[in-house]
Amino acid sequence: MIELDLQLPRLFADGQGELRIQLSLESHSLTALYGASGAGKTTLLRLLAGLETPVVGRIVVDGDTWLDTSSKINVPVQQRSIGFVFQDSALFPNMTVRENLAYAAASPKDALIDELLQKIGLESLAYRKPDALSGGQRQRVALARALVRRPKVLLLDEPFASLDATTAQSLREVLGDLHQQFQTTTLLVTHSQEDIRQLADRKVEIERGRVKTDEDKAPEPTPMWGVITKLDRENGYLETDTMQIRLSASAPWPNDLKVGDEVSLSWKRRI
Amino acid sequence: MMNMDWAPIWLTFRLASITTVLLLLVGIPLAAWLSATKIKLKPLIEAIISMPLVLPPSVLGFYFLLAFSPNNALGQWLEKAFNLRLVFSFEGLVVASMIYSLPFMVHPIQAGLENLPPSWKEASFTLGKSRTTTLFRVLLPNSKPALLTGIVLSFAHTIGEFGLVLMIGGNLPGQTRVASIAIYDEVETLNYAAAHSYAALLLVISLVILVLVYRFNKRLTV
Questions:
Q1: Residue B68 lies in a domain
Q2: Are A90 and B141 a contacting pair at CB < 8 A?
Q3: Is residue B77 part of a domain?
Q4: Residue among A79, A80, A84 whose CB faces B123 most closely
Q5: Is residue B197 part of a domain?
Q6: In which order are the strands placed within the sheet that holds A185-189?
Q7: Per-residue pLDDT tens for A33-68?
Q8: Taking CB atoms and an 8 Å limit, are B117 and A88 in contact across chains?
Q9: Cβ contact B128–A104 (<8 Å)
Q10: Does A90 contact B130 at a Cβ distance shorter than 8 Å?
Q11: Digit-coded pLDDT (tens) for B167-186
Q12: Considering its fold, how many domains does chain B have in total?
């Protein structure tokens, strides 16, 4: 669990104001922060990382206090267990892809380096310098580099912003897979509804330094089970002892589906 | 040219090399600190470092001569504590040259570091790396042209010193008689041939160094 309560005077587009944000983030969740440019989303990530310090504030991560201005605790950025992916990827040009990961890893021989290189699909480019990579490849490396330290919190500052739609989609899939595997509590700053729809458990809208809306993804519905009692392929109709399902006639049906089969129906809610 | 006294040339290059190496050791941390600090005194510190750019070398030389003189407190203390006399000695030339060439080392490195994307430094910090590790593993390796410019400018500036050396070092053969002093001395005694040998040699060597640097820098930046 991450608990934040932060206050910082800040210049907004329409003049001086104050960023004041209180949030509790469930462990292993992926929360999307969205809102207009200059609303304070990136500042929130930077405060959590320790790259900026609030005037008043408290940050507690899994019981460890990273910041408490009232008792003058301010754990330096280097000692906070974070991974930060910058919008410009911030890979080090003097190092190869593998060296970028090894620099971040606990040991240059950490097995996780090669595992992550494989997960992001860039094993073959491990000995290339970042200059030789595309924008999407660079962001994959940045993501892997941020995770190779096994951080408690992953902070992503618009990682898809400069990518074309296809590249962004493939990076989203990589991020989704890595999140599923590592279960790192993640804060994702984004402008894209697609990011929110595909990745987020929760979406928080920031406006002028305050939380404007905060919506949780509802818990996943329990799958329903039933035994098929009636099957009408032509009209796209299926009935079981527990439910009736009507699909469009063109919907793909498994060919071997027949009366008496057991089926389960599960679905995902979108936030 | 075959009969020329090579000692002033060797002394010049010895002085320039030692000064440059020591300046690197001092200049890198100073430039790194200046590129990152937000203290209010920064303009004052930058102004002090830049003073040799605007002051006549004889002014600096004059004050070094006063400060390092065995008749003054600092000079006396240096002699007592370290058995070191900085007036009319090679060591004195090194110290004076370091101060004189400090802006030529600090400015390019500071500018090089300030031009790097701030996210590189921040990314290194978020990966748990200290300021020192970040400086030596990330920032400096990506500022090679700036480092090279600092090294060459400091080296070349030290080779070209005259007024400062004359004030604090005088003209002691093998000790403080560097090439620029030797040229002046030979002209004074109307020995134009010897002066020309030193002058032409300095001219050619300086040109070669600069051409090599520009070629190398082009390779680094292209």
A1: yes
A2: no
A3: yes
A4: A84
A5: yes
A6: A82-85, A153-157, A185-189, A30-34, A202-207, A210-216
A7: 999 888 889 999 999 999 999 999 999 999 999 999
A8: yes
A9: yes
A10: no
A11: 888 888 888 888 888 899 88
A12: 1
